[in-house]
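SAMPLE LOG
Freezer: B-3
Tube label: C17
Construct: single chain, 145 aa
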Amino acid sequence: MSKIEDFLSTEEEQEIVEAIRIAEQSTSGEIRVHIEKTSNTDVFNRSMEVFHYLKMDNTKEQNGVLIYVAVEDKTFAIYGDEGINNVVEKNFWDSTKNIMQSHFKAGNFKQGLVDAILKAGEQLEKYFPWEHGDIDELSNEISKG
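STRUCTURE (predicted):
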């Protein structure tokens, strides 16, 4: 098995997808998780490429959040679109990354992702609450590269 397949079990992946569903149920914001073997470049630049590849920059309110993980590189990034970046506290993404990192260091990859998703969801709900007619614009499934 590749490292991507070993990173999360099928059950853990479903728990992450459920966390995304829960986080998005009260917001127009969109959250995605992308996992790949290696970034082959700066992790932030790669997360930005994946963000655009997944068409997360097409959300109506520019409120997409991508959690990107490069398994073999043992690195990750959180990329928020302009709409959400303009309203969250300056250190919000760093504090979210710190939560993930502490879980990841302990080998709790699923919990690190779930906690980051739910934390991002709280901010999305605060600044982009769900309104009648809002639709889920993007898939909640984990994408893999």
